[in-house]
Design goal:
- The protein has a domain of about 100 residues.
- Helices cover about 55% and strands about 0% of the residues.
- The protein has 5 helices and no strands.
- The longest helix is centred in the N-terminal third of the chain and has 22 residues.
Length: about 150
Amino acid sequence: MDGGGSGGGGDMATPVQKRAHEAWRVYKYYLDKTTPHSTYRWIGTLVVFLIYCLRVFSIHGFYIISYGLGIYLLNLLIGFLSPLVDPELDASDGGASLPTRGSDEFKPFIRRLPEFKFWYSMTKAFCIAFLMTFFSAFDVPVFWPILLCL
């Protein structure tokens, strides 16, 4: 009854909210259209990565941002390479083994982080890190070999 819910209260939205919602719908539309084009998506991410590297190399700074980005990308990679259900912890079938008979159930490898979400999170991280290089507040002075050793 207060109009704050997302269902049925569309008349109470301001013009700014309507524009933002329409922009979000257009963004999601084009994002959904990129789903089947994985090669072009990854090429685009590679271009964004190279632009970020050139920016960091040219200004000789923002090592903390790059270090945090590397840790985040490593976390994404681990999620991408990990199975959804750990076979050692899944005690429902009595142990992890390959099917040896025709009656055994085949369980395909299902990733914890799907490829599209992996790509999207990685690309978003590069874009955010690139934008952070334009603000001097994020350029914390650090002796970079210490980061390399950690």
